User: Fold this.
Amino acid sequence: MPAPQVRQAGWIVESTPKQPFQQSHILVVDDDRPMREILRRIIVSTGYHCITADGGENALAILEEQPMDVVVTDIRMYGISGIDLLRLVKQRYDSDVIAITGYTADYTYENIIELGASDFMIKPFSSKEFLLRLKRVINSRNLLSERNSAYLALREVSKQLIKAQEHERQRIARDLHDRVAQDLSALKISIDTLLVDQIGCNNQMVTRLSALARQLGKSIQSLREIAYNLRPPILDQLGLSSTAFQFGQEFSANSGIEVDFFSAGIDDLQLDADIQINLFRMIQEALTNVQRHAQAERLTIRLVASYPNILLRIEDNGVGFDVDERIKAAAFEKRMGLNSMEERVSLLGGQMKIKSMPGRGTKILIQIPISVIPHDPAVCEVESDPTAGEDPPLEDAVDH
Assistant:
């Protein structure tokens, strides 16, 4: 008994029993009705779901209503050609495209693949060849989907680990400041009081107690600095801009590197706590890298809200480095550095671009969406020549 069909303007919906592991949806587009019917029968025989359309316009209408895994389209058609349909499908939808034609002089295999097709077939071809190539496209698509799902799951785990790490840092910082530092402060006060009360005691004892009090004072200061670096309390109280500015001032005082910090629009945003702490960690990591490796005299920080993104640029006038060589070396090293920054940028759904060259300093450009919605994995680009290519919108936004 043939499978029931539902006719709609220009296309046919073929209802087939669902089979495990074969849930792919195929759209066949061809203005040649016999060819359309032949391909439909071949596809349905494998258990795939098949819809046909007699032209590009109907195909686009179908794609608006129902996602398709693969679109099989003829190149030469009236109205919207197969080439135009290929371009539109790749621009608008998440579908693979197999292009077919009987005119070998129109396009080469390389031309069609460059336009975004997953395969290109020349008529006539056997049903066996068509099925083999269709299944290859579907299998590749399924493998890519599984890999993307695994990547997203791994990214979610990394996000939760970083969040847990930040919460633990906050707890440790609070305990160090509120308990350990307070206890040491009380001990120092007791020693200072003891020195005042024991005016006539042995000079050697006074000297030793004074030295102990000074050492305790240094330990308390170091402890408070550790607690601050673990989780700056003003981040929650005054926000990202003030925290980054203060950190830059303290970094400049301790390292001798001049810091030029400018922020615009950040204080007007109600940023998620995760975005704030991760952006601060990026600034913190970048400045630490500058101090350790750049041999720079000055650096510039620009932090700007330019809807729908937050734009961060950090630039130094240090010795620079070859980006490609650094990436190769990082694969064999345990240092985090730029890898940690890239991970945080990726988790926030942003982009990071590193531009550097020996003797010409380093520029880090980061773009983070203000409202983070999980989507495609972030792209991290690198260029060895800081003058090559176009900068992202960040470049103009932070300079004016």
